[in-house]
Structure formats: C-alpha cells, structure tokens
C-alpha cells in the first residue's frame, strides 16, 4: 500500500475519490428526484400522488443491484440501437459513471422523498396559515418559512440516506467503474493478497463515512442554533 512506483496507495486513494464522486453525484440527483416526488405526494392531484407512491414503492422494493443492471444494459441497448441507425454496428456501452450516479439517484430519491415529506409535515400548520394571512405569496412562503425549517428537520434523515448512498457506491463496480471496491479486486487479483486490499478499502470507507458524518452533524448543529431540542 505504499506510494512508490510499485505501491498501490495512490490508486486506492484515487479509487476512493471516485467512490465519493459517484456517491455525491447520486445523492444530488436523488435530492432532485426526492423533492419532485415529495411535492407530488403532498399535492392535491390524485394522479400525482399515485405516480409518486408507485415510484417510492418500486425503488424501495427492488434490489439496488437490479436497478444498476437495468439502467446499464437498458441504456447500452438504447445507445446501440441509436448507433445502428447511423450505420454503426456492435455493442455501445453506456457511460459507467453516469449510469452509476443515475442508479444511485433513482434509489436514494425514493428514500429522500420520505425524509422530505416527514420534514414538511413537522412544520406547524399555524405558521403556514399565518404566512398566508400576512399576504405572503407561495415563493416568499417557501423562502422564509418552509425551506429553512424543511432543511432543519430533514438533515438527520439526510445523513442516514448519505451513508446508505456511500455504501451503494460499492455496487457500481459490477458495471466496470473503477471505484474503491473495483480497485481492491484488481489489486488483490494482481498481488494475490486480497486481505490487505479489502482491509484498506474498509478503512477508507470508514474514514469517508466519519468525515462526512462529522460534516453533517456540524451543519445540523448550525441549523438548530437557537432552537431548544428535547
């Protein structure tokens, strides 16, 4: 695990950064999906609520690995079909990073929608009624009352979703992305010393989890400053 010409330390660190990158990208994509699904589940439209419930039920019930395979092979089949229309032949692989981030985003979006929905329901309805009685428009109500409290109440749950996303990033190795688990498999196969590589991967995942968890707690403490908590 050294950093010399024959060491694997640099490759493992780069792979760890790739794991963080794909996890962060998937988390942000999931935040977009989760916000839209949360809005749909809280809307007055029965159709929107039905579609949102179906999305959350399917994505939470289907194994994450299956979602990755469906997006990767489905995207590859689509790209191959488009390439064939322009005279190309053969298999066109979907981009692994984009596919992995999208798969993580789809799955985490289902969980984030529940976190955001619970956070919204934690806001006292009297505050919303007071804002409307004061003459606040929807956007002003969102900016001054809803969003600040929504973020405050959602942060603890979002930290749990992030830890889940970080672990899900290890599954992206099945489609060929060289992240931490894939690099560990390559190194262990080349040196025939799998124990050292997987122990190193464990320590790196724990380090990433600890640092990011500390960051979430700092943000949460700042968000709750001045608020008495039970």
TrEMBL record:
SUPFAM superfamilies named among the record's database cross-references: MetI-like (SSF161098)
Top-level taxon in the UniProt lineage: Bacteria
Cellular component, GO annotation: ATP-binding cassette (ABC) transporter complex
Key words, A-Z: Cell inner membrane, Cell membrane, Membrane, Transmembrane, Transmembrane helix, Transport
One Pfam family from the record: BPD_transp_1
Membrane topology classification: Multi-pass membrane protein
Gene3D superfamilies to which the protein is assigned, alphabetical: MetI-like
Residue span(s) of domain ABC transmembrane type-1: 16-216
The keyword Cell inner membrane is annotated on this UniProt entry: yes
Compartment annotation: Cell inner membrane; Cell membrane
Protein family: Belongs to the binding-protein-dependent transport system permease family. HisMQ subfamily.
Protein's recorded name: ABC transporter permease
Higher taxonomy: Bacteria, Pseudomonadati, Pseudomonadota, Betaproteobacteria, Burkholderiales
């Amino acid at each position: 695990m050294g950093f010399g010409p024959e060491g694997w330390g640099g490759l493992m660190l780069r792979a760890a950064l790739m794991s963080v990158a794909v996890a962060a990208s998937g988390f942000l994509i999931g935040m977009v999906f989760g916000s839209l699904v949360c809005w749909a589940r809280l809307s007055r439209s029965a159709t929107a609520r039905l579609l949102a419930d179906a999305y959350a039920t399917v994505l939470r019930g289907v194994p994450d690995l299956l979602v990755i395979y469906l997006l990767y092979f489905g995207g590859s089949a689509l790209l191959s079909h488009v390439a064939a229309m322009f005279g190309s032949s053969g298999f066109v692989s979907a981009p692994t990073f984009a596919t992995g981030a999208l798969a993580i985003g789809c799955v985490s979006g289902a969980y984030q929608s529940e976190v955001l929905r619970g956070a919204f329901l934690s806001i006292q309805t009297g505050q919303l009624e007071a804002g409307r009685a004061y003459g606040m428009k929807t956007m002003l109500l969102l900016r001054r009352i809803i969003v600040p409290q929504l973020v405050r109440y959602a942060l603890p749950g979002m930290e749990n979703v992030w830890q889940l996303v970080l672990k899900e990033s290890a599954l992206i190795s099945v489609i060929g992305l060289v992240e931490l688990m894939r690099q560990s498999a390559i190194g262990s196969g080349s040196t025939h010393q799998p124990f050292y590589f997987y122990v190193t991967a464990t320590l790196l995942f724990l380090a990433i989890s600890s640092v990011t968890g500390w960051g979430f707690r700092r943000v949460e403490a700042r968000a709750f400053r001045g608020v008495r908590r039970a």
